[in-house]
Amino acid sequence: GESVGLHLPTLSVQEGDNSIINCAYSNSASDYFIWYKQESGKGPQFIIDIRSNMDKRQGQRVTVLLNKTVKHLSLQIAATQPGDSAVYFCAENKYDYKLSFGAGTTVTVRA
Amino acid sequence: DAGVIQSPRHEVTEMGQEVTLRCKPISGHNSLFWYRQTMMRGLELLIYFNNNVPIDDSGMPEDRFSAKMPNASFSTLKIQPSEPRDSAVYFCASSLAPDREKLFFGSGTQLSVL
Hints:
The complex is a heterodimer of chains A (111) and B (114). Chain A is mostly beta strands and 111 residues long. Helix content of chain A is 0%, strand content 58%. In chain A, the strands form 2 sheets. In chain A, strands 2, 4, 5, 9, 10 and 11 form a 6-stranded mixed sheet that branches. A 5-stranded antiparallel sheet of chain A has the order 1-3-8-7-6, with no helix packed on it. In chain A, a hairpin with a 6-residue loop joins strand 4 and strand 5. Helices cover 0% and strands 60% of the residues of chain B. In chain B, the strands form 2 sheets. In chain B, strands 2, 4, 5, 6, 9, 10 and 11 form a 7-stranded mixed sheet that branches. In chain B, strands 1-3-8-7 form a 4-stranded antiparallel sheet, with no helix packed on it. The radius of gyration of chain B is 13 Å and the shape is globular.
């Protein structure tokens, strides 16, 4: 079946460097994508979203890129900080309200 | 804003017992979701309410699971009888149309069924 998946399950990054987290999706009909951050013992926290009529969106220290041609989504975090250590999930909107979540990428920031 | 509030944070029970999880959505939000998270299956949607009405319960695993939303500020997820395979973290999330897909999650209930 169609699903959202992540290229890499873990990412280790040096503090201050930029992080790039990748996500592949297979449902070409999906029109809305979200990135969530989940810290240990907490619920997923909304980071940034993007609709299919856009290819780039920027937030505070984060940028989401959408490449519909290859069905690829990425999250870039600038100047990664220790507080960015968490599991990051991409999610796609399959129908109306239903979000399909990827498996998650664990980001570890090295001091 | 206090965000989505869930209780209890942790629940340990024995197989066969009834478990009730509680959720208070963000005030003004009209959509409410219950999710389950496990290492094996990730985040799974169990049930979705819109304006207190269950719209989609296709993710509810068995008849042992039931959910209610008696008013706009309260929802429960009940498991009766509970089984060890129900052990997971259960999240409640709420959202507001037209951005219904933009979910705000609670901190979850860690359920352990022994």
